[in-house]
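Long-time lurker. I teach an intro course on protein structure, and each term I like to show students one example going from raw sequence to a predicted 3D structure in token notation. This year I'd like something fresh instead of my usual example. Would anyone be willing to generate the tokens for the chain below so I can use it in lecture? Attribution to the forum is fine with me.
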Amino acid sequence: MLRRGLASAGLKYDTSGSFADRPGFRYGTARPFPMWDWQANRPLALRQRPLILMECSVIADRYMGLGYSPEAWDVMTRLKERALMFGGDFTFLWHNSHLMNPEDWAFFEGLMG
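-- Reply from a regular --
Happy to contribute to a lecture. Here you go:
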């Protein structure tokens, strides 16, 4: 139902397909794909751009708890490399609440580059 609502509102894509507690490939791909309307049994104009990484999934204590460690950086950059290696997009969400210190910015800018 939500997908149909997003499509009828004119949205072209959705990036909410992810795991909150761990980063990764929830749909098994980093490539955009059309979402499906199960009630009408047809594809929607809405496309899913899989969300591969949320910074808090790696950094925050309530999830992986890796902070700004080299291990956290490795997790993030490996996901980016794999997504791009297979022709996908590296879609990531970086909350503005994690742009408050130099470590936040270093990780964010490093992933953008």
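Some talking points for your students: The first helix runs from residue 2 to 8. The helical segments are 2-8, 55-59, 70-85, 102-112.
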